[in-house]
Design goal:
The protein is an alpha+beta fold.
């Protein structure tokens, strides 16, 4: 991990731990406010410097002194580095105060009790920012002006419309600004051993930089001295002055010294962060609390429609070579896990803000895609089909295969809302949004998208495969719908809507039962999708693990046990620790996915593989502890090195808090009972005579998706090699799974119908464009369906 990020929800700064300086200062924490407005980074670099000796003694900038400590102060968003230099201890603190849209930089210089320098000490600051046209902003035609009233510089460029303000919070001795390469530039002045020149500004230069100098004198043995500065972004010079005044007022209110300001910021974080779950180790507790910090820093706090959204990742300035993008974007899916993480850690105010954000977002551009498999009309909806711009409008990225259209978000939102209402007891949210929005534009949308066999219509799902023939009937989508609809049943009850409560439970149970009826592949393991299973290749997908964690299938039952065994046999990465996300073979898919590891740790523990679960969770905990407490998106599958875009918020911090909070707790079936698991043949329900090499979408026993011929990757114990004693019943006893509560909504024989046959029928029906699902031929369906559906 090479960077640390600090954010207060209003902006973000990035400290590069390899070049020892601030390299990013974003105008917004999110990537793009709209389709035409991408957030700009105004920082080129910024860091302090020191001169130990009188004028004429060459000084040293901090980026040339390797820190011995680089960290977040525990349980805060304060970035701390410590260096030793000529007998002095230099502590640097960089953070965005949680109440102000600015960057505070503070330096503490400590003289040792004996043996330290007995010469004058001066501390400098350098602010090298870009405010020109374009994105990234150019460094051309930049001007500066000094405000002697507030000891501040303002930097601007023509009609660009922004001004950077740099202010000293402790009284400076000198100040200066200058163009890149000029002798008056603060960088050049300190390097040459001089004092800053007290200029009033420069006009129309390239690469303007500003700085301040504080002369500390000769420090007595064992004493310390502090200096502090702020950086703020404003739309113009007048507002820049106001920003400096606000910063100085804040500084005064926090005690008026850098030490008291730092202590106040730490105290504010300490009062917000909650204790880790009982039983957590010291390392786990520290990571749990730092994960709470990441959740808060990842939530936007701007006034307006963008308030409350949670980003998938904090901005990572220098992602490794295999990074696939900076994910400081609000995805529905990541935000759901982040919201549940906030709930599990007791942060109900922030969780409610995230839910409110989605209720107030501007969506609807993709209504025609919500037609279902048989060409029904699309329906109004409220949850984005993919993600959001920073201003709260819907955003679905497209490529040559069209947009991403994801139906799992509807179920995930309902799950997060259920978690919030149940934990907080706050039903006021339902009073405001249930009848007008949640019921018609979230829960009913899932009912509309559900086929009579319980499956949800084909979509882009969790791994975002796009559209135009790429969409599939994903297990993750149907599982999230099952959990979400059963959550909607509980939400409806809390809202006083008992009629719809029963309806949603019925449909949730239909989706739950469809998991074992249509989505089990060879050997009985849950597969990625009906289409992948029918293809006979690359059909395993780790995201199906949530069907266990959400209490849809019995962790000790044959389907769960087969799924986990197949994952260990076919999805475990080369480093021998965690899992890739699927078998498709792409470089992104084949990394070790931290989110998958964390959610698998919970499922494997539930299924009896306690040793494997403990080792997997410990591996990820230690990895994150060794990387500033920032949880990664990916690990290199061979070396285990960090990859992707850390720190992840929902898929990292949220998933960690969720998994730790659930550890050792009893699993409650989401829909009242686990899915019933009828008998299962050795090839997914397809009789041997029909798929022994024939052209029906089945595969022969010795070629099923690359799995060993005997059991499709399920080992003899079914439960995992290191914990065989905790295994569930063997596959030959597949009919002994726990009973369903019986929604009566799955067609007769559905659970033994092969996935390939259902897909073939689906494709045929799609060709003839049947407009009503009642003509599908599921003759034994007796469930009530809402009028008009």
């Amino acid at each position: 991990m090479t960077t640390l990020t600090s954010s207060n929800g209003l902006g973000a700064l990035v400290y590069d731990a390899t070049s020892y300086k601030i390299t990013e200062f974003l105008e917004h924490p999110y990537q793009a406010a709209s389709s035409s407005a991408t957030s700009r980074n105004f920082a080129y670099d910024s860091y302090p410097g020191i001169r130990v000796g009188a004028e004429g003694t060459a000084g040293t900038w901090f980026n040339g002194i390797t820190p011995s400590v680089t960290e977040y102060l525990a349980g805060t968003g304060i970035i701390h580095t410590q260096r030793s230099f000529q007998g002095l201890t230099l502590d640097e603190y960089d953070f965005e105060p949680m109440a102000l849209a600015l960057n505070a930089m503070m330096v503490k210089v400590t003289q040792p009790a004996t043996g330290g320098p007995t010469v004058p000490i001066d501390v400098f600051s350098l602010f090298n920012y870009s405010v020109g046209t374009g994105n990234p902003p150019a460094q051309t035609n930049e001007s500066t002006s000094y405000d002697s009233t507030y000891d501040a510089y303002y930097e601007y460029s023509g009609s660009v419309g922004v001004t950077m303000a740099f202010g000293s919070l402790t009284t400076p001795s000198f100040h200066a600004s200058g163009a890149s390469g000029a002798t008056t530039n603060p960088y050049a002045v300190l390097t040459a051993g001089g004092n800053l020149g007290d200029d009033t500004g420069v006009t129309g230069v390239t690469g303007a930089a500003e700085g301040f100098q504080s002369s500390l004198g000769t420090l007595a043995a064992g004493t310390s001295a502090w200096v502090a500065w702020v950086t703020a972004l404003a739309p113009d010079a007048n507002n820049a002055e106001a920003a400096i005044v606000t910063a100085q007022s804040w500084f005064t209110a926090q005690g008026g010294t850098p030490a008291t300001v730092l202590a106040a910021e730490q105290a504010a974080w300490a009062s917000w962060v909650k204790p880790a779950p009982t039983g957590a180790s010291v390392t786990e507790a520290a990571l749990d609390q730092q994960s709470q910090v990441i959740l808060r820093m990842g939530q936007v706090a701007e006034t307006g429609q963008g308030d409350g959204q949670i980003l998938a990742s904090l901005y990572d300035e220098a992602p490794p070579a295999l990074s696939f993008g900076n994910w400081n974007i609000s995805w529905v899916r990541d935000m759901a896990y982040a919201t549940v993480g906030l709930v599990k850690s007791g942060h109900y105010t922030e969780a409610k803000a995230a839910l409110t954000y989605e209720m107030q977002a501007t969506v609807g551009a993709y209504e025609s895609y919500l037609a279902g498999d048989y060409g029904d009309a699309g329906v109004p909806y409220q949850i984005s089909v993919c993600r959001y711009y920073g201003d709260g409008t819907e955003w679905s990225d497209s490529n040559t295969n069209g947009p991403n259209i994801e139906f799992d978000g509807f179920g995930l939102f309902l799950w997060a809302l259920d978690q919030y209402v149940t934990a907080s007891g706050d039903t006021s949210f339902l009073t405001t949004y249930w009848a007008s929005t949640i019921k018609p534009k979230v829960a009913d949308v899932l009912v509309h998208l559900q086929d009579y066999n319980g499956l949800i219509s084909a979509d882009s799902s969790i791994w975002e495969v796009h559209w135009d023939g790429q969409q599939r009937h994903f297990t993750y989508t149907t599982a999230s719908a099952a959990n979400g609809l059963c959550s909607a049943s509980r939400i409806a009850t809390a809202a006083g809507d008992t009629t719809d409560s029963s309806t949603y439970l019925t449909h949730g149970q239909m989706a739950r039962d469809a998991l074992v009826g249509y989505l089990r592949g060879p050997g009985g393991a849950l597969g990625q999708s009906t289409e992948a299973i029918a293809s006979g290749t690359a059909w395993l997908d780790a995201s199906v693990i949530e069907a266990i964690n959400w209490g849809l299938i019995d962790p000790a039952g044959p389907t769960a046990q087969a799924t986990m065994s197949a994952m260990r046999a076919n999805l475990q990465v080369a480093d021998g620790e965690g899992f890739m996300r699927d078998q498709t073979g792409g470089s992104y898919d084949s990394q070790e996915w931290v989110f998958v590891d964390l959610r698998s740790a919970r499922a494997f523990a539930l299924g009896g593989s306690t040793t494997f679960s403990t080792n997997l969770f410990t591996w990820n905990t230690q990895q994150s502890a060794d990387n500033f407490g920032e949880i990664s998106e990916l690990y290199d599958p061979t070396t285990g090195d960090y990859e992707g875009s850390p720190p992840m918020v929902g898929f990292g911090a949220g998933a960690y808090i969720l998994t730790l909070s659930e550890r050792g707790t009893t699993l409650t079936p989401s829909c009242g009972a686990f899915a019933a698991e009828p008998g299962f043949s050795d090839d997914g329900g397809v009789v041997a005579g029909n798929d022994a090499g024939g052209g029906d979408g089945g595969t022969s026993a010795d070629s099923d998706a690359g799995l060993p011929p005997s059991d499709a990757g399920v080992d003899a114990t079914v439960g995992g090699g290191d914990d065989a004693g905790g295994a569930g019943p063997p596959l030959s006893e597949a009919g002994t799974g726990s009973s369903s509560s019986g929604c009566g909504c799955v067609a007769a024989g559905a659970r033994t119908t092969p996935a390939w046959a259902w897909v073939a029928g689906l494709l045929l029906l799609a060709l003839v464009r049947r407009s009503r699902r009642r003509s599908q031929g599921e003759q034994s369906v007796t469930c009530r369906v809402p009028a008009g559906h």
